[in-house]
Amino acid sequence: MSEASLSPGFAHPVRDAQAAFRALLEAAARPGTIASLRVPAEPPPCLPPAMAAVALTLVDADTPLWIDAAAHEAAVWLRFHCGCRIVADAREAGFVFAADASALPDMATLDAGRDEYPDRGATIVLAVAGFGSGAALRLTGPGIDGERVVSVEGLAAGFVAARAANHRLFPRGVDAILVSGAHAMFLPRSTSIEEA
Amino acid sequence: MTPATTPDAAYNEGYLDEQTKRMIRRALLKAVAIPGYQVPFASREMPLAYGWGTGGMQVTAAVLGQGDVLKVIDQGADDTTNAVSIRRFFTRVSGVRTTERTAEATVIQTRHRIPEEPLRAHQIIVYQVPQPEPLRKLEPRETESRRMHALADYGLMHVKLYEDIARHGRITLSYDYPVLVGGRYIMAPSPIPSFDNPKMDNSPALQLFGAGREKRIYAIPPHTSVRSLDFEDHPFHPWRATSCCDLCGAEDSYLDEVVIDDRGGRMFVCSDTDWCGQRRDAGHRGRLAGHALARKETA
Predict the structure, then answer these.
(1) Do residues B55 and B128 touch, judged by C-beta distance below 8 A?
(2) Considering only Cβ atoms within 10 Å of each terminal Cβ, which end of chain B, N or C, has fewer?
(3) Kind of pairing between the strands at B179-181 and B185-187
(4) A4 in a domain, yes or no?
(5) Tens digits of per-residue pLDDT, B200-242?
């Protein structure tokens, strides 16, 4: 364990976690809007700062975490700050972190909850190259007045199709948070996504 | 607006410990992702009894931050015991600014009303909920009511409303009137008057619901359809006393009836005290304006 792998978490754990959560809550309530998260000063280099902020805000001993190979360098940091169990099988995970968008496990295999308890579905946190350019997506659903067209750079090729299949399971399903730098876009399971 | 203060150092900021906040925050995000679905959560004991708004307080404690301005109402009033003590509690443990003005607030915790002034985007309204399960009086078993939600099997609720019409000629619910959220889940709007139901539909604000004793959190995102259940030949009618406010003269606000003597005298006043006060400040006068009972107390 190197010292670098244990850089600090939030500068002000209580207030920064609240600020990051509020930004995520607003983002979840308005799918497709871009939230600017309070992030730790020196997150592990392999994690986008917003992904590190999501971990510090929402992940703990109650939420098994799966991370992809690209995020593996951050395992010690995540265990130390979140106290979470890191699982090898993504199907067991409450949070699924993919620092490399193409390494996201098949969405159909992730926990989508049960009909009686759809809230138990997993949350995906997916690193993308950026917002405002790249593939255009048309979003409709709760939280959106009419429709919202967004563009996301660096989504894996099959994401929209896999997400559409997942959306058909509603109210079961997985929720996705796309992150880039200190920014995040929430795509809850209720949002319908088409290529625009 | 009261100024921000330094939170009491004897408590973690916002009263709840950080792990509890994370648990509630995760539940809130799932609740927003599944509009109208009741997310179970590990409700904590709060320093007041269940039934006094512990669910709403836990939700408020999990969302509230330094930049917020908090308003708390109880049946529309800012100055009743429950509202005052909850506001004082958050002043002490969070140090947030508080207000009685709907327009100034970023977070509004409410018991049984939605303010008359339309809510805006980026405002959050937190409802205190005594019974989150709209089917509970029809189906006492949690396993069964949960399955009914899972299958969207809501025939029983429609039978109940139909029987109301068959017996009384109309749907007799005047508060906690069930709604269908996002076309999927039937939801209890908490005991707000049916008068307030239309305000939930397609609201620009985020609506969060906390039931402390029943350990459930649910939500309605902005711009989500919220339809009060009804029938084509018996459309939904929000109920309101056929009178106007005796203080400010408002003809379109929700009214409380107040007995004022022992000879059958009564008056109607706006339940929303902020709304009524602002109207009176603007010069509106009702039937009893100027009456001893209507005079504003001066310090």
Answers:
(1) yes
(2) C
(3) antiparallel
(4) no
(5) 999 999 999 999 999 999 999 999 999 999 999 999 999 999 9
| CB neighbours of residue A127 within 10 Å | 24
Q: Do B206 and A116 touch (CB under 8 A)?
A: no
Among B22, B204, B224, the residue with its CB nearest the CB of A58 is B22
Q: How far apart are CA A75 and CA A6, in angstroms?
A: 10
> CB distance B14–A175 less than 8 Å?
no
pLDDT surpasses 90 at B299: no
Which residues in chain B are classed under CATH 3.40.50.11310?
A: 18-134+175-228
Report pLDDT digits (tens) over B63-107.
Answer: 999 999 999 999 999 999 999 999 999 999 999 999 999 999 999
Specify the CATH superfamily of domain B18-134+175-228.
Bacterial phosphonate metabolism protein PhnH (3.40.50.11310)
**Domain range for A126:** 10-195
For residue A120, being part of any structural domain is answered with yes
- Which of B81-85, B264-268, B287-291 is the least confident region? B287-291
**Total number of domains in chain A:** 1
Q: Is A180 a domain residue? A: yes
**CATH number for the domain harbouring residue A94:** 3.40.50.11310
Write the residue in B18, B62, B147 that is nearest to A116 by C-beta. B147
What stretches of chain A show up as alpha helix (H) in DSSP? 13-29, 49-58, 75-82, 159-167
Tell me the CB-side half-sphere exposure of residue A121, using CA atoms within 13 A.
Answer: 30
The catalytic site residues of B sit at: 36, 245, 248, 270, 276
Q: Which chain A residues are within 8 Å of B30, Cβ to Cβ? A: 119, 121, 175
ipTM value, please give it. 0.97
Residue A28 with chain B: CB contacts under 8 Å = 29, 32-33, 221
